[in-house]
């Protein structure tokens, strides 16, 4: 099978030298193992943290070790486990065409009428992040103004829609006019700021959120976050989910620059980690599936075809090439 390995730890922005594709021979699955033919691989921003040696919330990948992440596939050899050939499963797998997985780490998926790739997106980890981050951390109330960064992305798109369902006015930041159109028209945000064609985020937000900001779901950090802090209202809540604008930084710029605003407003700034909600993942996915089926939640996926394009799909996250969840289609 073709498989990707971490060739070297990137300094700053990862590039082609970070990845090494090799052909590996697979043994037959052993006791308690299954052979999976991978159909979709997930590429996620947090994987940048796994490429670095330092401590992060996910263990670092070893140099020369396979890259891995969430994947969906079909069981082809179940070797006496609880699975049957033909089952569609999700779990942690290597960036490969075929992977031998520990059966205990796999789950059968039933996405109903939805494509199986949704198990990596709106019904999977990003959807659950949005679900718990919005409902348990941000907790928007009717009439609140909520701002979401990376609003066209896998997490942000769902956060904004969940906040709208709670009755909030929702403003997004996204990196192109095309994305802003999707954010407003499909995801139903009240406004969207294309930060790549705007010099003055503070001014743009004054227009888009004239009553100030009661809730901020931060996926990016950096200058967008500085601008949003400038507009926080008294008792605002900030849910810190991601800092993708800083993941490739070789030297951390000074910041956040607007923490004085937290004093002034007595805002609550709270970090969130989706893994903390693991005992409730099924509940989240069931609710999300119901809302998607009912048309209350819209989702998008960007699909790149071919295992050989997995590195580019990952690197594209930092260029904003995806709308909604970025996945790699490895096989039919
Ligand atoms: P997305 O689908 O949102 O993809 C990443 C997006 O980030 C890009 O499409 C791009 O959109 C935007 N982006 C990239 N660089 C910058 C930048 N310099 N400034 C502003 N925006 C940028 O990814 P996910 O939905 O999977 O993840 C979103 C965030 O949530 C990430 O930071 C991720 O690490 C975090 N996360 C945290 C979890 C947790 O448990 N805490 C769990 C899951 C995700 P654009 O074109 O708009 O720039």
TrEMBL record:
Name under which the protein is recorded: NADP-dependent oxidoreductase
Source superkingdom: Archaea
InterPro entries linked to this entry: ADH-like_C (IPR013149), ADH_N_2 (IPR041694), ER (IPR020843), GroES-like_sf (IPR011032), MDR_fam (IPR045010), NAD(P)-bd_dom_sf (IPR036291)
Enzyme class per UniProt: oxidoreductase
Enzyme Commission number, as recorded: 1.-.-.-
UniProt keyword list: Oxidoreductase
Domain Enoyl reductase (ER) as annotated: residue spans: 12-328
One Pfam family here: ADH_N_2
GO function term, MF aspect, one: oxidoreductase activity
């Amino acid at each position: 099978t073709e498989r990707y390995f971490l060739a070297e730890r990137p300094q700053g922005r990862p590039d082609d030298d970070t990845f090494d594709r090799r052909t590996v021979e697979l043994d037959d699955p052993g006791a308690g193992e299954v052979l999976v033919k991978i159909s979709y691989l997930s590429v996620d921003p947090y994987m940048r943290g796994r490429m670095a040696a330092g401590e992060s919330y996910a263990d670092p990948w070893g140099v020369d070790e396979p890259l891995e992440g969430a994947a969906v596939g079909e069981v082809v050899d179940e070797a006496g486990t609880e699975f049957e050939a033909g089952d569609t499963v999700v779990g942690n797998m290597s960036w490969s065409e075929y992977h031998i997985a520990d059966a205990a780490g796999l789950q059968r998926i039933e996405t109903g009428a939805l494509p199986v790739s949704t198990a990596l997106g709106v019904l999977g980890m990003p959807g659950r992040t949005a679900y718990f981050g919005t409902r348990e951390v941000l907790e928007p109330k009717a009439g609140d103004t909520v701002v979401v960064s990376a609003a066209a992305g896998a997490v942000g798109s769902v956060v904004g829609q969940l906040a709208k369902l709670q009755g909030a006015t929702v403003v997004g930041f996204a990196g192109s006019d095309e994305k802003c159109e999707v954010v407003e028209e499909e995801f139903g945000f009240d406004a969207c700021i294309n930060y790549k064609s705007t010099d003055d985020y503070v001014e743009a937000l004054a227009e888009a959120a004239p009553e100030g900001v009661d809730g901020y779901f931060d996926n990016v950090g950096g200058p967008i976050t500085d601008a949003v802090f400038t507009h926080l209202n008294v008792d605002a809540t900030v849910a810190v989910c991601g800092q993708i604008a800083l993941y490739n930084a070789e030297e951390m710029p000074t910041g956040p620059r607007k923490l004085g605003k937290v004093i002034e407003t007595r805002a609550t700034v709270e970090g969130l980690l989706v893994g903390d909600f693991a005992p409730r993942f099924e509940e989240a996915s069931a609710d999300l599936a119901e809302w998607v089926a009912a048309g209350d939640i819209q989702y998008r996926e960007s699909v790149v075809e071919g295992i050989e394009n997995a590195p580019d799909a990952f690197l594209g996250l930092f260029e904003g090439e995806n709308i909604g969840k970025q996945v790699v289609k490895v096989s039919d």
